[in-house]
Amino acid sequence: MARYLLKRLGFIIVSLFFIVTITFFLMQAAPGGPFASERKLPPVIEQQMNEQYGLDDPLYEQYFDYLVNIVQWDFGPSFKYVGQSVNDIISRSFPYSLILGAEAIFLALSIGVLLGVIAALKHNKFGDYFAMVIAVLGISVPSFILASVLQYVFAVKLQMLPVARFESFAHTILPAIALATTPLAFIARLMRSSMLDVLHSDYIKTAKAKGLNERVVTYRHAIRNAILPVVSYLGPLVVAILTGSFVIESIFAIPGLGNEFVVSVTNRDYTVIMGTTVFFSVLLLVSILIVDLIYGLVDPRIKVAGKGDK
Amino acid sequence: MEQVNLKNSDFERLETRHDDAEKIAGESTSFWKDAWRRFKKNKLALAGVVVIIILGIMSFLGGPISGENYYENDLIGSNQPPSSEHWFGTDALGRDMFARTWYGAKISLFIGLMAAFIDLIIGVIWGSVSGFFGGKIDEYMMRIADILYGVPYLLVVILLMVIMPQGLWTLIIAMTITGWINMARIVRGQVMQLRSEEYVMASQSLGASNVRILFRHLVPNTLGPVLVTLTLTIPNAIFTEAFLSYLGLGVPAPLASWGTMSSDALPALQYYPYQLFFPAFFICLTMLAFNIIGDAMRDALDPKERK
Fold first, then answer.
1. B291: nearest CB among A140, A239, A250
2. How many other CB atoms are found less than 10 A from the CB of residue A295?
3. d(CA A125, CA B92)
4. Phi, psi for B90 (deg, rounded to 5)
5. Which residue(s) pair with A85 in the sheet?
6. Does the N terminus or the C terminus of chain B have fewer Cβ atoms within 10 A?
């Protein structure tokens, strides 16, 4: 187990090294300097700015400095917002994204699993078709269109919920639904097919033959086994929520990290782009590792440690 | 109940002929014929195919039918609701939405098909080489894929779109740079399964080269799962394009795609909802059709998976 964990952590560090290197050189290759704007700066000032931010050092030195800083979890200053560091921006905006993301993950998991179970239990009946229509629509309607429509219908026309911003629980409902829909649809389909598999297996027949009632069979025997593919979907789920947040947060004007990333892209604020990219990657790699560990715990047939070591 | 009188003479003894047992009654079907037969049964999927064909035809005929073009501004006639003159209305610059919608269809479908095609080429070569040779080569090739896979797809695409000049091909390259990995993994898995089959050994003992075995025997046999992945890649690419356009990183003006059209419609959604409706409707319809076709193909090509 410890060896497996070390190996995985080593792999994460190697991946991060590549990601940092690639983003660093990509941003170096980007057209236009960080201070390029409509108004041309006097050369003296530009010179001073470059010195201030260490941009006149040779490239390998800048790269090395950046690596050292990243190891110390320091993403450097923002080029566009004077006096703000990338760390400030992340720690200010990430809590919003975290709350929204958690709500969306909760929605996607609970409703997705519920729909999948209903569809499997009512196989080829109304419940099945109803759940699958929702699932197919959820996959086919892009989240940003759904978000705009939800905003238009519920906030602008019906005025039931706030249009935008992030001030109370009511503000989070529409964005969380918009963010959750696509992964919800995936989970429902996944749950349905795995539930159908399980319901046809021998131990379910045995359980029924023993005279257990339908509820016990469904909850104790079927769902517990059928939920495993959904657990392995948790990694992609985090990715979906994270990238979904780019658009959803800008539509609902939520000052979260996804929105910050999009703004930094349009501003060409290179340090913020790099910093958020690295932050997102760390977040993802770690959450995928956690998901794999959970998977090993939930399903005893899968040995996390692999062959040989226990 | 009517009484039926049966006499002994009603029964006739048939001569048993042994060669009859060997006769094949039905016409022999190939794997693909069989798959097509199963696919045809799925009416929804056939409807999906029809929708895609119509969209494809309209993407070429749409402009000529309406007699309008997608780029001409008419500031006096801007933001008109659908009418007999402009069937889908006009946008904020007075451009005809009907012509733009079908022009957008051309761009969106082209991006989807092209991205899927490039994914196919790279993914099949990478995956089959990795799976066929195994060992160290496999390990290194898959490590590279794993590292690329560790970064979220959209993040890479956005980063690339930032540094490259905006354009149609930039978008396609950015999407395929990590998009092929999924295909490579599927092909690799298939090839690893197939390479121990007897026909591979037979071919080897007849002195066929590795390249020949790979591309004449193994790759054609991976076609089923590859086709399914391909059909599901297309809606994904269309979605990604729309998503990027929405963030302002899509195809540059005056080119129109469904993504840029929906994004343009947003600021005035309250006043001109029809401007969002048409492009959004067609994005959803296309994704729906491709998803349904992909599912039906998976069912048709892999009968074991049928639910």
1. A140
2. 16
3. 47
4. -125, 160
5. A77
6. N
Give pLDDT tens digits along chain B (307 positions): 567 788 888 888 777 777 766 776 777 777 778 888 888 888 888 888 999 898 888 888 877 776 666 666 666 666 677 776 766 777 766 677 787 888 888 888 898 899 999 999 999 999 888 888 888 888 888 888 877 776 777 777 888 877 777 778 888 888 888 788 888 888 888 888 888 888 888 888 998 888 888 888 888 888 888 888 888 888 888 888 888 887 777 777 777 788 888 888 777 777 777 778 888 888 888 888 888 888 888 878 765 554 4
Which two three-digit tokens encode residue B74? 């008419």
Contacts of A87 (CB under 8 A, 6+ apart): A73, A74, A75, A275
CA distance A16 to A22: 10
Q: What is the pTM of this model?
A: 0.80
* Structural contact between residues A151 and A254, judged by C-beta atoms closer than 8 angstroms: no
DSSP code, position B90: B
Inter-chain CB pairs, A–B, below 8 Å: 101
Burial status of residue A11 (CB atoms within 10 A of its CB: 0-12, 13-18, 19 or more): middle
> How many other CB atoms are found less than 10 A from the CB of residue B21?
7
Name the residue type at position B298: R
* Residue of chain A whose Cα is closest to the Cα of B160: A26
Alpha helix stretches (DSSP H) within chain B: 18-22, 31-41, 43-66, 97-133, 135-150, 153-163, 168-194, 198-205, 210-212, 219-221, 223-246, 258-265, 273-301
Token output for B270: 């309250």
Rounded Cα gap, residues B159 and A22, in angstroms:
10
The residues of A whose Cβ lies within 8 A of any Cβ of B are 11, 14-15, 18-19, 23, 26-27, 29-31, 136-137, 139-142, 144-145, 148-149, 152, 156, 192-193, 196, 239, 242-243, 246-247, 250-251, 261-262, 265-266, 268, 273, 277, 280-281, 284-285
Buried b / exposed e over B144-167, threshold 16 CB at 10 Å, is ebebbbbbbbbbbbbbbbbbbeee
ipTM for the predicted complex? 0.76
